[in-house]
Amino acid sequence: MSCGGSPQDYAAAVLGHRSLGDGSGLFAVRCEEIASCAEPGQFVMVRPGTGYDPFLGRPLAVADAAGDVFKMIYRVVGRGTALLASKRQGDPVTVRGPIGRGFFSARGEKPLPRKVILAGGSVGAAPLLFAARRLGLSRVEKTVMGVAGKGWEGFAEWLKEAFPGVDLYSDDGTAETKGTVLSGLPDFLPAETELWACGPQGMLRAVAEKYPRDGHRIMAALESRMACGVGGCLGCVIPTVSGNRRVCVDGPVFTAEEVKWNELSSC
Amino acid sequence: MSSLRADLSIAVGGLNLETPVVIASGVWPYDPALWSPERLEGVGALCTKAVSLHPREGNRGVRVWETSCGMLNSIGLQNSGVRGFLKNALPVVRNSGRPFLVNLVMESARDVQENLAVLRDAPGGTEAVELNISCPNVDGDGMAWGISPESAARAVAIARSAWKGSLWVKLTPQAPDLPAVAKAAESEGADALVCGNTWLGMAMDLKRKRPVFQRVAAGLSGPAVFPLALRTVWQVCGAVSIPVVGCGGVARWEDAAAMILAGASAVEVGSALFADFDLPRKIADGLADYLTEAGVSNLAGLVALGRK
Fold first, then answer.
1. Is the ipTM of this complex over 0.90?
2. Mean pLDDT of the B261-289 span
3. Angle made by CA atoms B190, B191, B195, in degrees to the nearest 5
4. pTM for this prediction
5. Do B62 and A265 lie within an 8 Å CB cutoff?
6. Given an 8 Å threshold on Cβ–Cβ distance, is A225 in contact with B65?
7. CA gap A86, A72 in Å, rounded
């Protein structure tokens, strides 16, 4: 399987579906074309069927990939994700991908850092799980994850299982420690260490602002509303220091110093 | 096109199309891999994203919002300007080997004439322009050029005087008397009419308790608007004698067939491509089968058959 080029649509089937409780779940899809090429930070546009309901695909980060199978994590927020949540083993899905610039390719020619801190919020854990697998345990200095709290207990349990040694925070203290992801991060980024983050926009902005001088060492995977996922609709653009950039194909991974955080839409 | 069993070729406003399926403006990225022949199977022509004289950043805030069987967009014509287009996008567009139209933002009279002059003088030239008269007339009172027959006539006359090549004019369904606007565009020298563009709608964000879009109103597209678009195609085809290209909600070959029966010579497909890259081939295959079953030897024989 050769990688590269533009993402394509594939008719695929759900291989397995595991509920993580409270409207969250992890499902595995058999699609060699995507599984063999996907990189941590890249995503897939998923459609629960072949028709126009829902009209647009849902961008979901690749949470793991090996052989001809890749995994994704979802949280039900609307009709599209609810339909995905209803999928069972053998059900058809349409997948478009792999899409975007992941944590590795977004670095360009820069060598991998000696140590990486992983910081994730809710389903933003997905690409970081994949990144941790690719980086290897020896490079992961620390893993900090956050969830909202009540209603996320099942997801929090899964985080503890998926990320051994994770420092887990929740807004209301229902999952391990009360606080946010920021509570678990060091005051200063250690030398030769990068921070890779994925989560809600507010969390990413707060992380970027915590280390104002180290934006070049913070890799953030952003989310945005999008229609096509291939750079055509320009629906997902964000303001950056080099002008408008598309989250789908120019990202979703950007360095924190590229993004004009205070000009990002709050919706 | 070896899979096609009937002749789908058709001449539309100065362009010879191998199939009647045109990729609408604003949906196809300038990724060279997506302009290769194998990715464009079934496509008769492509329309570029909107090109203005000067670069435009587009709108801030939310730009796309899914609706029931459709979507709203408020992109705001983001583009790198005509010179950026010639430098970065046109070579990619040309490589497709397909006929193409440059979708031109109808700005002020002076700007659009300069824009057309830059296009006209570009090395290699450009065959065809699709003039978008849905944009606000900044020379006037901000109303879209295409709302009234008078302003539409002026817009087409301005473009026609500066552009001798194929000129398609993309109408706005917001016009209260669309057939009158269509006639005005025809009288000023349009070679074909695209009927039409997105429909103004809006969405409310229940969490923020505010309109979703900064500009409040946004353009609705997708299968939800197809019956509306088909009705306007019928009305406009009854009013003019130049070719009409149906546009709005086309998402299946049956939609294309309906528009052609109503009088359209071709159809543009837009946001349905976001869901299905392979839609043009499916439409072309479906039309070919339909022609065969109907005993019609070529596509021209299907045009306006529903009016007879």
1. yes
2. 96
3. 75
4. 0.94
5. yes
6. yes
7. 14
